[in-house]
Amino acid sequence: MTPFELENLARRLLAGELTVEQFAHQAAGPGIADVGEAQVDLDRGRRCGFPEVVFSQGKTTSALEKIFHALLEHDVEVLATRMTPEQAASLLPLFPEAVYNPVGRTFRVAPKGRKVGEVDPDVQRGRVTIVTAGTSDLPVAEEARETALWTGAEVTMVQDVGVAGPHRLQANLGPLLEADVVVVVAGMEAALPSVVGGYVSCPVIGVPTSVGYGASFGGLAGLLAMLNSCAANVVVVNIDAGFKGGYVAGLIARNAARRRSS
Q1: pLDDT in tens, 222-261
Q2: How far apart, in whole angstroms, are the C-alpha atoms of residue 231 and residue 202?
Q3: How many Å apart are CA 40 and CA 57, to the nearest integer?
Q4: What percent helix, strand, coil does the chain show, rounded to 5?
């Protein structure tokens, strides 16, 4: 538990929102919350850097509600991915302070007394820049953006700068050069990560999308192209895996920010 999380927990205790037993249990680092349909990992933040994220696809509204409450009761900001509009419509009345991104299909809820995305103002934040090759890649890029914001990173978006018009990338190099890590979301032949990798000295995370015509094979062509990038600083996640790209970028950015602070 970070000092910021512990401070929020103490404030909830002083405000009478938690009993002494609840405070002690949460401060000691609880392990698992059994909510019936799921075993919610409450200790993942300590072990892995960030708390558990909820994959909404295939889950009932009832199951999602229980999982969200388990996380919120332990002062964890909820991030749920791949949420349908129908699921969001059912959950928003139950969590009126939640923020649903219909493009990125993400759903975020902050614990009581906090706002979605609130971070400790005294902690230096890492810098993530997300680049899209085309506007058709935006849903995956939005998933990456929401995830990186949830990790506490500062996020800048550079949109529609694919290799069909390379001058557009050159006109937007500033945010790339200032970043701790760049996430490049691209479909079709997915050449953009290699081009970006040739301009920056930080890690570049390639996210291939399923955007493209028949021979793109649902993103497989882009995945293979990124894996074969000749830019040595490019690494790749799975097809349409905006969450994975944003999560790894958040880890890199946070560690870079900690090094600057020390």
Answers
A1: 999 999 999 999 999 999 999 999 999 999 999 999 999 8
A2: 12
A3: 16
A4: 40, 15, 40
pLDDT computed for residue 120 by the predictor: 79
Phi, psi of 157 (to 5 degrees): -110, 135
Average pLDDT, the chain: 92
Can you give the pTM of this predicted structure?
0.86
- Residue 97 confidence (pLDDT): 93
Q: C-alpha distances in angstroms, 43 versus 30, 35, 51, 185, 250?
A: 6, 15, 7, 31, 18
Both structure tokens of 50: 């960030």
Task: Tell me which amino acid residue 261 is.
Answer: S
CB 106 within 8 A of CB 86: no
The residue among 122, 149, 164, 174 whose CA lies nearest residue 242 is 149
Q: Is the dihedral of CA 67, 72, 74, 77 positive or negative?
A: positive
